[in-house]
Design brief:
The structure holds two protein chains of two kinds. Chain A is mainly β. In chain A, about 0% of the residues lie in helices and about 50% in strands. The chains are: A mainly beta, B mainly beta.
Chain lengths: ~120, ~110
Amino acid sequence: DGGITQSPKYLFRKEGQNVTLSCEQNLNHDAMYWYRQDPGQGLRLIYYSQIVNDFQKGDIAEGYSVSREKKESFPLTVTSAQKNPTAFYLCASSMGVGTGPSYEQYFGPGTRLTVT
Amino acid sequence: AQSVTQLGSHVSVSEGALVLLRCNYSSSVPPYLFWYVQYPNQGLQLLLKYTTGATLVKGINGFEAEFKKSETSFHLTKPSAHMSDAAEYFCAVSYNQAGTALIFGKGTTLSVSS
């Protein structure tokens, strides 16, 4: 079955540690995205990538970093510079970025990160 | 700045009642419109989308939405609520511009009581 996998489902870290969240897709999609979800704030875009070895900052990129070395993988690192990292993180993919009606986004199951 | 507004962060209905979740967007350019549903601790699932053509769009689980350009709205409805419809619903828009991602509303939590 095609889809998006995120691991782990739950992640716990101590403050000051960097942590990397995994996102893999086998949909052959070009574009991938990372969102942060907090209660009452909807989804906020962290980073997105339209093609391998290229990515753009979203609305809340500070304290995060990404890489796109393979088409199917888009890992997100939450660095110690992120002031409030505890949140639900969602990865998504689409055929492209915003240039056609078929470019709806498909979402993974999410990773809930808790930093204490 | 382009934006999406979902009126009402919480909506409560009785089982069997009409469900109406409101979504308005801000743009003079017709967008592509989407509704997603999220169950607790899960990712988002596409309910329906409007691209071009018929303005009344039917989706999964008995939901439908109507694009009204004059009102810049894309409200989501379902004639009869089920307990299983309790979830969070997100409206999103895409403005067909290269390099732009979806813009999401803040979400509406639907509660269904028996």
